[in-house]
Amino acid sequence: MLNPDDAAHATRHYLKPKYAVPMHYGANPRLKGTPEQYIKALGDSATEVFNMRMGETISF
User: What pLDDT digit, counting tens, does each position of 3-41 carry?
Assistant: First the structure.
């Protein structure tokens, strides 16, 4: 299970996606962190993060 810093590292260095949608945070007590912490940890990454709220939709 990745914390926000580890998830950001994997995003920047391995996955390198154009978009990211954090969604599994808080699903159980062992998953620590928030989307805001993930976004901060990404820094100046080219990945655009969509921090969606319950009921929101997005189209690509």
Answer: 999 999 999 999 999 999 998 888 888 888 999 999 999
pTM, entire model: 0.89
Tally of domains within the chain: 1
Q: Let me know if residue 22 belongs to a domain.
A: yes
Cβ atoms of 33 and 25 within 8 Å: the answer is: yes
The verdict on residue 29 lying in a domain is: yes
pLDDT in tens, 32-48: 899 999 999 999 999 99
Measure the CA–CA gap between 56 and 13, rounded to whole angstroms. 29
Domain annotation covers residue 56: no
Q: Is 3 exposed, middle or buried (0-12, 13-18, 19+ CB in 10 A)?
A: middle
